[in-house]
Description:
Elements: E1 4-6, H1 9-13, E2 21-26, H2 32-45, E3 50-55, H3 75-85, E4 89-91, H4 95-98, H5 118-121, H6 125-140, E5 144-148, H7 152-164, E6 170-174, H8 194-226, H9 231-239, H10 243-254, H11 258-273, E7 280-288, E8 302-312, E9 315-325
Parallel strand pairs: 1-4, 2-3, 2-5, 3-4, 5-6
Antiparallel strand pairs: 7-8, 8-9
Helix pairs in contact: 6-7, 8-10, 8-11, 9-10
Amino acid sequence: MTATLLRTAADLQARARTGRRAVVMTMGALHEGHATLIRTARRIAGPEGEVVVTVFVNPLQFGAGEDLDRYPRTLDADVELAGKSGADAVFAPSVDEVYPGGEPQVRISAGPMGERLEGAARPGHFDGMLTVVAKLLHLTRPDVALYGQKDAQQLALIRRMVRDLNFGVEIVGVPTVREEDGLALSSRNRYLSPAERRTALALSQALFAGRDRHAAQEALRARAREVPATRARAEALSAIGESRAAADAHAVATTAGGPAAVRAAARLVLDEAARLDPPLRLDYLALVDPSDFTEIGDDFTGEAVLAVAARVGSTRLIDNLPLTFGTFGDAS
């Protein structure tokens, strides 16, 4: 399948629309993570619908000293990958096309939620991101727009903007795509040297450690709830070959668990990575409520996000995993 390259809003608006239009917004330098978004969009739009991929490196969301100038621009390859993945069109406007009067005087504010975590590390980033997303939603007029869950705070803010400002578009989050070694796919991964990439694996390893600690804790809690904390409980556990667990499962299941244990398990991995050569320099590790990205307490139940951001060399990377607390089941 070959995607049509469109450079202006007029060209995009002149296209005849049939069926549902699904839009995937990117800054280019497309990789398998983007391809997954496009394939998902194709399934949602169906054979009668249309998939449009936007490619625009938005200057509003880059702060002073960030990598706007060196951000990879690979439009020819992007158009090819988009077409092979199921896109009908690639909308790649210039900065002048998106901001014809220069930087906009009126912008979308991300509010308090946009000042936390990524917003604290990159002041103004989310205001710039939401402003361009709002403009691109108006220009492309989709029925559904898809975004990756790797940028969890971005996705949450887009959902909040669409709901609060009545945009009338469905927002779909697509799970993070990872390399075989666990590293989350990112256009910025190409900046990493082989040694830096080895250090960068600590981001996903920290998240997996937190997830595994949480899953083990939830399993113990479920077992403690099923078997009374009595001599009979220890005997029952011992009978199925878990004599060590029988000695201390009740204590472990009722103490040193929950969010604090998840954070501690993840931080241990990150602390070790800080001593590597090259070292990992942590920006933040957070376990947050996805509705507002505030830190959760030890008595929290429901959906949460374990998020991390760090620098390796001159490259800044982010990653996250969803977790569920209080269900006495595995993390998801």
